[in-house]
Write a structure and sequence with these properties.
325 residues, alpha/beta, three-stranded antiparallel sheet, 48% helix
Length: 325
């Protein structure tokens, strides 16, 4: 694979500490793919609001990503940005805001994520209207789908296209829908659209709360995907941040081994985590990779990388090396 100017710069300048770990993790990612492996990427935090789609979408299009686990926030916020980008407001001095400043943002229906405000009416309500049509139709038909499947239906219907405010090629969810990429969204109810769905169930607009399929069913679906895919390919695990987006999918291996007795299933074949969480007592997000060996998630020989830095800086640079930019 060719090395473009970004990759050349990183390999020349990023030689030590977290910088060196970044390059080594990216090169091992490439080697894993070149050896026929597949890769799961997990998205914690607000990486969609950080516009990771600018690089992640191309990773998906070029078959550098084969499955994604993400929070409900990341699933929806990529689409919020797609349909309301011009209405976002950036707050460079966010550390200096007073409580009254925050209240004024609330009064304007601007929900702040660090330095970026998401506009409620143009982003959240536009997506809600489109999703509600799909939820109600499925509910009436006695049909049940996963959260990401409803999102795929909305995108494929074209309902949101009149509102697009960025190039859809920069949306990772659009790229995933085009590939019909497997997505797993543990804890989806802890998201804006999850809250909306609960409200519509409470109001009676949706009669069957199980119209949206559950997290346990996501684990079952993930187990089927992992079992089938791992028969032919080693599966790597690229974790951005910590929390449920990473802990949920990585546990599929010990679940298959320990709870189902499927000791023939291979462990994850590559592991990298980008995290700014410090290693501390009982912390999953800051746990060193070797701790995962004791849980049956990784093997002694699994290539393991830990980059202690800001994922909004590190992830696009790793993707740039993998893509040869």
């Amino acid at each position: 694979m060719a090395n473009g100017p970004v990759t050349q710069f990183l390999k020349h300048h990023f030689r030590h500490f977290n910088a060196a770990a970044l390059v080594e993790a990216a090169e091992a990612y490439r080697a894993h793919l070149e050896g026929g492996g597949a890769m799961m990427v997990t998205l914690a935090g607000a990486m969609s609001t950080a516009e990771l789609g600018l690089s992640l979408a191309e990773m998906i299009r070029q078959d550098k990503v084969h499955a994604i686990s993400c929070t409900g926030a990341n699933l929806e916020e990529d689409l919020f940005n797609l349909v309301a980008h011009h209405h976002y407001e950036r707050i460079p001095n966010w550390r200096e805001l007073t409580a009254q400043d925050e209240k004024r943002l609330l009064d304007r229906h601007l929900n702040r994520v660090t330095d970026t405000c998401i506009p409620e009416m143009e982003a959240m309500r536009r997506l809600e209207a489109a999703l509600l049509e799909e939820w109600v139709a499925a509910d009436g038909a006695g049909e049940r789908c996963f959260p990401h499947e409803f999102v795929y239906r909305v995108l494929r219907s074209g309902r949101l296209e009149p509102y697009y405010q960025i190039d859809p090629r920069d949306s990772w969810v659009v790229a995933a829908a085009e590939k019909n990429l497997p997505i797993y969204v543990p804890g989806w109810e802890d998201s804006t659209t999850g809250n909306m769905y609960a409200g519509h169930c409470l109001s009676g607009t949706i009669r069957n709360v199980h119209t949206v399929r559950t997290g346990v069913e996501y684990m079952m679906e993930l187990a089927r995907w992992y079992e089938q895919t791992s028969r032919a390919r080693s599966i790597g695990f690229f974790q951005i941040g910590g929390g449920i987006a990473g802990d949920f999918p990585i546990c599929v291996v010990p679940m298959l081994h320990q709870d189902m007795g499927r000791t023939d299933i291979p462990v994850w074949g590559y592991f990298c985590q980008i995290s700014d969480s410090t290693t501390s007592y009982g912390s999953y997000s800051g746990a060193v990779p070797n701790e995962k060996i004791t849980w049956g998630k990784l093997g002694v020989e699994t290539p393991k990388f830990m980059i202690e830095s800001d994922a909004s800086i590190v992830a696009p640079l790793i993707f740039a090396i993998v893509l040869g930019w």
